[in-house]
Amino acid sequence: MTASETVGPPRGRVREALDYVLWAYTPFRPMSARDIYDLVSTNAFTARGLYLNLGYWKTARTIDQACEALAALVGNTAAMGGDDEVVDVGFGFADQDMLWMQLFAPRRITGLNVTPSQVRLARARVARLGLADRIELLEGSATAMPLADASCDIVTAVECAFHFDTRERFFAEAFRVLRPGGRLVLADVIRNAPEPGGFRRRVQEVTWAAFARTFAVPPANADRREGYAGKLRAAGFTDLRVDSIRALVFPGWHRAMGEDAALRRRLHLAGRLPYRLLLRLDANTVYSAFDYVLAVARKPA
């Protein structure tokens, strides 16, 4: 990221801090996903690039490695290759799309994103790498894709489908735009299985409700793995898997937040404050409400 990479007109620091506090700590400023990412702007997790995912920590030791590893996991799981036309929904600042071109060289990637400020900056970044003829980035919705029927081989969404209103509508759209035999691959946050005991279960419910309010998660998206798989089947997908990778996501992220002072500094000050308390707890307690899944499905040939 360079000094010229900004997503829009600068906010005053007081106004920005107030917006963060109202959004994160009160019920008085509910935000859409578009509003959230406008506010977060380029306060990315990584030192390289502008990734905003929690990372895949199977072998990664830094947040930069982990964010790239999650994107690579999605590409590998999709068996992405040179003949594929890919639709990447919720592409952020297009970091994963540029990485996929480097690693897998698909024929074409079309990105869809509802946040205009991210689309503008991502297009500039892609153009600087000379990839604008192979990566087309559009302002558009996952639940009403401006794409023709049976027009792509792979649909991906990296850590964003929990925002979509709703996942069911997104699954239907993904099925529509995929060619027969096409693959859908998602890295997604969902609800975890209920904990035993009334108190622990209540903590999960309160934590999920706070997450859903803060991060614009529609009530219909409060899925657990069984329901998630059922929605994929109902959309017409077969050969599906919804695998939990939470043990390779949340503990690594939690450890990095505790050990990596530079990572904490890259977050907005208002976003750092809760971690002063949360880092005193173990990851299983902090993230007990959440599962993290790698979901794979295929449109029948």
Structure notes:
This protein has 301 residues and is α/β, with parallel strands linked by helices. The chain has one domain: Vaccinia Virus protein VP39 (Rossmann fold). Helices cover 42% and strands 18% of the residues. It contains twelve helices and seven strands. The protein has helices at residues 13-25, 33-40, 63-77, 95-103, 116-128, 167-177, 198-214, 225-235, 250-259, 261-266, 269-278, 283-286, and strands at residues 85-89, 108-113, 135-139, 152-158, 178-191, 238-244, 290-298. Strands 3-2-1-4-5-7-6 form a seven-stranded mixed beta sheet, with helices on both faces. Helix 6 links the parallel strand 4 (152-158) and strand 5. Helix 3 (63-77) packs across helix 4. The mean pLDDT is 93.
Tell me the layout of helices and strands:
Elements: H1 13-25, H2 33-40, H3 63-77, E1 85-89, H4 95-103, E2 108-113, H5 116-128, E3 135-139, E4 152-158, H6 167-177, E5 178-191, H7 198-214, H8 225-235, E6 238-244, H9 250-259, H10 261-266, H11 269-278, H12 283-286, E7 290-298
Parallel strand pairs: 1-2, 1-4, 2-3, 4-5
Antiparallel strand pairs: 5-7, 6-7
Helix pairs in contact: 3-4
Quick take:
The chain is an alpha/beta fold. Helices cover 42% and strands 18% of the residues.
